Every structure is written in C-alpha cells, then in structure tokens.
Amino acid sequence: MASTAKNVKPAKSTLPAADVQEFRGALSKFLSEKDDSGRKWANAKWGVYAFYDYEGEPIYVGQTNEQLRVRIQRHLTNQRTDAVAMRILDLFEVAEVSIWPLWEYEGVKKGQPRFKDAFVHLNALEYAVYLDAIAKSRFKAILNEKIPPVSQPIVLPASLRRNVISDRVRAERGHPDIRIERRAETISRLASVARERGEVSEGLRRVLVIQAVRLAYLASTRLAYVEGRELPSPDVIDMEALVGSVLAEFSDPKGEESDAMDASLDGELEQDDPDSAG
C-alpha cells in the first residue's frame, strides 16, 4: 500500500480569509512603528486611541492603561472587548487608527503614588480626543457607548495615524452597496442585543440611533449618486435633537460608573489572555 502524507495542522495565522490576513498584516505593521526615540508607539502602557472609517470619519475613541498594543489588538483581532461583543463597533468599518501615548507614566501601576494623577491625565486625554473627534465628525457624534468623563482641556501629545487596510481591501469593502448592507446588519445585531438583554445602557441605545443615522446618510448619498443628483449635506441631520448632548453622559457626566466597569473588565481580560501583548 502506498504511503500517504501525514496530515499537518495548519498555523492559525493562515486560516483567516485573504482580506483579514491583509488587515492584520497592516495592523501589525502599524503597531510596530517607532517614534524618533526608537520606541514603538503602541508599546506605551498609557494612552488613547481612535478608529476611523473609509471616509476618515472618526467612529470610536478609547483609552487604556494596560498597553495600547494590547487594547487595539483586542478590538480589531481577538474580538474580546465590550464594544465588539455588544455589536457597537464593526471591525470591517475600521480603515485608519490613531494613537496618543502618554510615555511619562510608563511603569506606573495601581496603588502607586502617581497612579491617580496618571488616571486623571488619561481621562483628560481621552475626553480631549473625543471632543476633537466630535468636532471633525460630519454627524457630530461617534459610536462610543460611554461618553468619556468631562475633564479639563489639555494639549494633545504627539500622535501616530495610519491606514490599516490595503488599496485592494478598501476598493472591495468600501463599495457603497457593501457598506450599506454591512451597516444594516450591524444595526440589526445591535438591536437584537437591546431586545434580548432588555436592560442595556442608555449609551447603547444612543449608538443604535447614531448607527441608523449613518446608514440613512450612506443610503441617501448612494441614491443621489445613481440618480445624478447633488449629494445631500450631513448638515440636514440634527444629531442633538435625536440623541441629546454627546458632550457628557446624561446620567454619569464624571464617568464614575464607567471607571468601575473598565477596571473590572481589564482585570478579567488580563486573567484570560496574559500573553496577548505578543
């Protein structure tokens, strides 16, 4: 009997579809970029990050004190963050990423004298980046379930912003019909979360409205394009009339509830995935 080749288990990195592999390759390259001091930007323990869609529209802002690399990878590869699990953030909509590291707090840990000052600074940076994102958004709103705690204005530190999708993937995923279908599916899944869980945050319901507005605008611009009409202006959308102020959480403006939840989530993730920094 002729011998047969022994089956070999494939490497996990070869299993994703080609577009996902390209995305992860571009993300890995971004996370490996170094600053003028030779430090990898994403290796900063403390910092803030932001995601942008195919038009450069800001869609999400977050913070971390466990390492920028770890938190961004959890969002965009492991799918183990609350924003992804709750169907608030669609990974396929992320085309660019920015990071703002706070290098001065490297090595600062909970319980140490500087931890409180570092955390206050981190909150202030997240709020400053969030306000900048709101100002630059055509809809004057982004997809954060929890608005960062209101903080004193600060000057933004040096940042890095890069594309994390190839031209081929942008051409494929960026087609308006694909994005309309994908966004409608995201809204459906988010609505299912609200319906199945029932007791969800006010912020999740706000995000549902914002996603619906984003879908309506995308579909309306597609219609205008195929009809040869002038594209509608996003100025016709009064987001504040639809969802209220997005500058502070109505029931928790200081972010006290979110601080407790984030600390709990970070602890769970560190226990579950101690080697994710890779």
UniProtKB/TrEMBL annotation:
Membrane-spanning parts: none
CDD domains reported for this sequence: GIY-YIG_SF
InterPro entries: GIY-YIG_endonuc, GIY-YIG_endonuc_sf
A Pfam family of this chain: GIY-YIG
Top-rank taxon, per record: Bacteria
Listed Acidic residues bias regions: 265-278
Residue stretches making up the GIY-YIG domain: 44-141
Annotated region described as Disordered, given as residue ranges: 250-278
The protein's name: GIY-YIG domain-containing protein
Organism annotation: Nostocoides vanveenii
